[in-house]
Amino acid sequence: MARYKVSDPREYLSALYFINRAKEQNIEIVIDKYSPKRSGRQNRYLYFCLAWFAHSYGCTEIEAKEIYLKQFACPQIFEVRHIDTKGRSANYYRSTADLSKEEMAMAIRNFRTYASINHIEIPDADDALSVRYCEQQMQRTKNYR
User: Fold this and answer.
1) Taking phi first (over 0 means left), then psi (-120 to 50 degrees means alpha), and beta for anything else, what does residue 120 get?
2) Which of the two ends of the chain, N or C, has the fewest CB atoms closer than 10 A to its terminal CB?
3) CA neighbor of 100 nearest in space, from 39, 53, 142
4) What is the full DSSP assignment across the chain?
């Protein structure tokens, strides 16, 4: 499978050459939009944010993710409206695994803003000392929940 970044002039020309060659040989090609998925680092930080929010707010991590992240903090990213064959509308929420890097970054930013509105400060991903402190606090109270 070939992948071309069409914003690069060289790769754009290579893609055109590939398409013309396929046309000459009467080969069927499939062109699909590619967007890189979220990174492992983003995923770890998101789940840290959810755990710290759940710890501070007094809910489970699942509630933090399904209710506070997807429904309250970032419905514009996660909510998908589906209309069935009878014309009825149904909403469902996308998985975080389906997000691109940009969508994941926006979801994390929106969730941190939502948490700060609720007086829960979530440290930056780069602030290793604060992140470690929060992890220790969660570990200390783990047995009491």
Assistant:
1) beta
2) N
3) 39
4) -----TTSHHHHHHHHHHHHHHHHTT---------PBPPHHHHHHHHHHHHHHHHHHTS-HHHIIIIIIIIII-HHHHEEEEE-TTS-EEEEE--GGG-BHHHHHHHHHHHHHHHHHTT-----TT-HHHHHHHHHHHHHTGGG-
Q: Positive or negative, the Cα torsion across 112, 113, 116, 118?
A: negative
Say what the pTM is: 0.74
What Rg do the C-alpha atoms of the chain give, in angstroms?
Answer: 21
The rounded mean pLDDT for the chain is: 92
pLDDT at 145 (0 to 100)? 59
In angstroms, the CA 99 to CA 137 distance is 30
Burial class (CB in 10 A: 0-12, 13-18, 19+), 2: exposed
Q: Residues 136, 139, 140, CA angle at the centre, nearest 5°?
A: 85
